[in-house]
Amino acid sequence: MSVSGEERTLLVPDGLAGERVDAAIARMFGLSRTRAAELAAEGLVLVDGVAVSKSERLLPGARLDITIPSVADPLTVVPVEVEGISILHDDPAIVVIDKPVGVAVHPSPGWNGPTVVGHLVAAGFRIATSGAAERQGIVQRLDVGTSGVMVIAKGEHAYSVLKQAFRDRTVDKTYHALVQGHPDPLEGTIDAPLGRHPKFDYKFTVRADGRPSVTHYETLEAHRFASLLQIHLETGRTHQIRVHMSALKHPCVGDLTYGADPTLARRVGLERQWLHAVKLGFEHPSTGEYVEFESPYPDDLAAALEVVRDSV
Length: 312
Fold this sequence. Notes:
Elements: E1 5-11, H1 21-29, H2 33-41, E2 45-47, E3 50-51, E4 63-69, E5 86-90, E6 94-99, H3 116-122, E7 147-153, H4 156-168, E8 172-180, E9 187-191, E10 194-196, E11 204-206, E12 214-222, E13 226-233, H5 240-247, H6 262-268, E14 275-283, E15 290-294, H7 299-310
Parallel strand pairs: 7-14
Antiparallel strand pairs: 1-4, 2-3, 2-4, 5-6, 6-7, 8-13, 8-14, 9-12, 10-11, 12-13, 14-15
Helix pairs in contact: 1-2
């Protein structure tokens, strides 16, 4: 078997005589015992030229060969153009895009799909170098499963100004969400702190020790099974709209993670939550002029809304 990575060879010292393979490797190479056991299971640990199991006991003076495969950094930006990302505006300070569903804003552990940052680099855009390497120029984020308009800073001044604007909550962020049922009242404000779910680390929930989170909503259309809402975010927490609407017992249609009805999701043909960032308004970092950018509904959301509108 040929595996690229670091190859190490040494003789088992007297002090490790009688130790299990996984325990000895962990001590000698600074690995976790779990990782050491995985290497043995993959046939990457040889004692005197023979592959051994993790529980094998070592003899002093035995030759130990170990291959530690190289692991790609999950935060490395991979320049790949992404089909479906459209440029709504481009000038020397900023680029505004329409992000499709299924695209992350930047690389992160556990995500190996397309990213906005990777697309912009591949397409030849110069973006600000401020921020962590994997998310340079990023002043806001949208979930992988949320589509719509977002702005990226191309220069350092723009990055600083926009970052501060988002902190100061002077950016107008408008979303449309199709939610189950009919919120009562038809318009209102949800002020409920959000934090990670105690049992599922991929989810968030309302909790007393969470971060302050404020969502304003108003009903645009009320239909038999669902309501189309216009939502303004005062804060910008991860999954904020999805969690707040679920807490009201009106989850976004198609949002199975937060309690949506799977039967209704199938009926309207959705495989993700009906949530779209339709409008973004802010003072341009170079001119100070108020600018606004909009994104139309993508095909899957538009089709689902029509099904709901046609329901009698």
